[in-house]
Amino acid sequence: MKLKKIVAGAATMSFLGLGIFSSSQQVSAASWHKGTPKTVRNKTYELNSQKDYLAQVGYTFKSNSINAWTGANGQGLYVYSRAKYKKIGSHLYYVKVHDDNVVTGSRKAWFKVKILSEKRIYVKDSSSMYHGYAPYKYVGSANILRL
């Protein structure tokens, strides 16, 4: 009788110990990935507005950098390098980059990119004049020259 209690207690303890050590923990891949998100990589987007002066604003997402331009014929061209991104929601990415400007030196910048469809995205950046996301539409591959 005493032996049955000891065996039953040992079996119970082994199951409890096995349950504690085998509890499922959420394991994910590295949260930060090098480059730009694959869904926008090697694509060019322009601001989805033809009514005002902001019609000449756009982004070209390359594998490790982002080119942004403003004005006609890309007069204000900004090159952001050393990109890395993190998925922060469903079709929402946070991209960190370095602005290697000759005048101001290297500074950090960020972009939030929301994928609406294959042809439409919303972009919010650290120096945006918008108080939210601005709509952009796909205009071609990354080899489009804006200069």
Description:
This protein is mostly beta strands. 14% of the residues lie in helices and 44% in strands. The chain contains one helix and nine strands. The protein has an eight-stranded antiparallel β-barrel. A hairpin with an 8-residue loop joins strand 8 and strand 9 (134-141). The chain is elongated, with a radius of gyration of 25 Å.
Describe the largest sheet: 8 strands, antiparallel, barrel
Question: Helix share of residues?
Answer: 10-25%
- The main sheet orders its strands as 2-3-4-5-6-7-8-9
- Return the average pLDDT rounded to an integer: 78
Summary, kept brief:
This protein has one helix at 2-21; strands at 33-34, 43-47, 58-61, 66-70, 76-89, 92-101, 105-115, 120-125, 134-141. The chain is mainly beta. Strand 6 and strand 7 form a beta hairpin.
